[in-house]
């Protein structure tokens, strides 16, 4: 105890010494004394680290390599890095960023950081936020490109696995979420190599089922198989996946594939999964349900049917014979034939012929046979044990990738003639849509917004894809500005945001985060409020002429009204003063609300209304930053609360919402008539 007390006294004197132009030898000795402490109080740590930051780091580049290394090792803790980041934020000194980069470039910095956390949950979470969130990356500003940062991290991860350091799987998912495109490209380019594949297997096989699902369906399949799977590497990817333990998520995988427009991916998954009969029966339970047939758009049913065909072609005659008597199969065939769609009918007959082992006699014409969707490619699988790593990720477009032709795709925009983007076809995955918004060669935002409206609404039944990408997509949409000075920009942007909110209502959390914490102009915030109002009304069953719905969308129903005091009309366009970020018009509601709500049997909004209303109400009560033109914004804000309240009826707690709304209306001094 006395020794530790003596060391503590020495540390105090060392701190004073470090503040008084110490020699390099004195710096090294002070750090040695600090490291010798068996226990360090938070106060001692902060004093010593802040002294290094303030007095030693400014001369860091002048010190010897040994001294630099000793200093860097002092900063391999959560508290140390947080202190350093605070100083970077306060002082903006280049030397601090240079030191931080040197710290990251140490081969074992991440592994040491994880070991020093001693498996404490709080510190582990902090490492995730600091390293794999955007906190460290953002501190560099323009001094470190995101690609370089991702490359540094992926090498740090590899070093951890080589040293058998237990890396939390959350870190991998956070890494892949750091950037919508570059994260996956860097990660999979790095680990899909002969020397690193075993580590990829280790990462995946240590994940729980939810993590595996996110890893595969959000990242691996869209970014790797969705882009690079072809006839040349098909067998190699099969061999890789056979080394991954996917048994517990096989059904999620086949269901994702069933909703995909990538025909080769459908065949890949059909071959890959083990429980083929079991999963085919599960798919038939969905596909053959009357509500599925009546509510899901025909192009999606075509994709789903192709998956059934692909899977059934692999089964034995005995397995197919049993399924041919399945109630869902027979019901699905008969009900879908009533839809009178020629392409779907042909697919149904092919499926029936396949499952009946040829008992159903049906011939399709030559024109139909030429369509890729009707043809199952003959694939040579398992001929060798060799994985051709060079073929896994290739930029060669002529590799046999098969998707539904553009004229038949479920992504068909009215603006196709105007939208060229170097003659690229419209995206079929939300991930690709997000990438298109972020591309450097974009020439029109409104055309992409129009595509967004169609694609998002068409994806309503693609639950996995919608769940994963909607928050990111809506964040991109909210931040868009009219940099090309396009007509009707605000109107189309609002419609795009509404389409996401209606299709995936939980994305309201992202929208509200941007509203409350984002660096938004007044115009952007007004657009957010308008989008929230219109989405709430549509979810409640109300129709607004302003809201654009593609022809495949099924009409929503109407909402009952027993809150007689609140009345609404459709929105109108009203000019707002322009600001430095955006120009044009924004939706505002008329001050006269005269249209009564109509009666309906279904209100999809009532159950979730509190998740939309109370964050807005509480933010108002706490005094959100209103900025310039605050009277205009407050009026629109209160109007939005009123429309949400209206749309929430009927629900338990409706009267409480009315009370809160009326208190806010009275406090604002703005009466919404």
Automatic annotation (TrEMBL):
Domain Telomere length regulation protein conserved: 427-536
Top-level lineage group: Eukaryota
GO cellular component, as recorded: cytosol
InterPro entries, per database record: TEL2_C_sf, TEL2_Regulation, Telomere_length_regulation_dom
Gene3D superfamilies noted in UniProt: Telomere length regulation protein 2, C-terminal domain (1.25.40.720)
Cross-referenced Pfam families: Telomere_reg-2
Gene Ontology molecular function, alphabetical: Hsp90 protein binding; telomeric DNA binding
GO biological process per UniProt: 'de novo' cotranslational protein folding
Family: Belongs to the TEL2 family.
PANTHER family: TELOMERE LENGTH REGULATION PROTEIN TEL2 FAMILY MEMBER, TELOMERE LENGTH REGULATION PROTEIN TEL2 HOMOLOG
Record-given protein name: Telomere length regulation protein conserved domain-containing protein
Taxonomic source organism: Wickerhamomyces mucosus
